[in-house]
Specification:
Elements (H helix, E strand, L loop, with lengths): L8 H5 L7 H4 L20 H9 L16 H19 L12 H9 L5 H19 L8
Helix pairs in contact: 4-6
Length: about 140
């Protein structure tokens, strides 16, 4: 159908058949189906299911020699994991689950407004570049 010059949008739309979306997702004589909503700070269900079905083993454990802010300490832990992964699994793709949203955001962007986090991220860049430059040589046992 063509829209005539001067025809309002409302008149033009009335020429078409509209489907009520609620009717599509409603079974006969039942309540409408609503997707499961979650708060923005809660993880999706598939993350816990993935974590439950994989076999984990402890690779690293250490105590921090100095006290510090929790976000900086978690970022240092991420850097330690990168260091370990670049030495032992260069050229491999590894799955790492982070529970710190600050560390996750800072490492995804590669920067942070926090000077302390930026210092840790600057130190981890060498391990990322070094592991990538070795090429694919994944021998996982």
């Amino acid at each position: 159908m063509e829209r005539d010059v001067g025809m309002s949008t409302g008149c033009f739309q009335q020429q078409f058949l509209f489907i009520d979306v609620d009717d599509v997702f409603r079974a006969k004589d039942s309540e409408p189906i609503q997707p499961a909503l979650r708060a923005w700070h809660e993880d999706p269900d598939w993350i816990s299911e993935l974590a439950d079905c994989l076999h984990f083993r402890e690779l690293l454990r250490y105590r921090f020699s100095k006290q510090g802010h929790i976000n900086v300490l978690e970022c240092r832990t991420y850097k330690t994991w990168l260091k370990y992964a670049s030495k032992h699994f260069a050229g491999c793709r590894l799955l790492g689950l982070l529970d710190s949203r600050v560390t996750l955001g800072a490492t995804a962007k590669g920067r942070s407004s926090s000077f302390a986090l930026s210092r840790v991220l600057q130190g981890s860049l060498g391990y990322v570049i070094g592991a990538l430059s070795r090429g694919p040589s994944c021998d996982v046992k």
